[in-house]
Design goal:
108 residues; alpha+beta; 2 domains
């Protein structure tokens, strides 16, 4: 089964958006036609980003980092300086390296 995102209009005229699994795009089109839906789009669903999750950075760590970064920026601290401060505070070595890489890219 493959994942698809879709936009359709049902027989009552309501627009519906969502995602669904089907054997193929053709089977999904057939399914919607059988229900008298008007199809506006059907696309293969995009994979979720695994930028940090595959590298050992937990969602909680990312949330805390985001909140702290926002607080520093809103208090007037430049982004480069804020990233440097947070790089020193992060205990996860993988996350610390990622922040360091971002800092390096910004400075170049």
């Amino acid at each position: 089964m493959k994942a698809f995102s879709y936009t359709v209009k049902n027989p009552d005229g309501r627009m519906l958006k969502g995602s669904i699994e089907a054997e193929s795009q053709e089977k999904l089109i057939e399914h919607f036609h059988q229900q008298n839906y008007i199809i506006f789009s059907i696309e293969a669903a995009k994979k979720k980003s695994k930028l940090f999750s595959d590298r050992g950075v937990k969602t909680d760590e990312l949330v805390i980092f985001s909140r702290q970064f926002t607080t520093l920026i809103e208090s007037g601290i430049p982004a480069v300086e804020a990233l440097g401060i947070l790089e020193e505070q992060v205990s996860n070595a993988t996350f610390r390296k990622a922040i360091g890489d971002i800092l390096k890219d910004i400075k170049e």
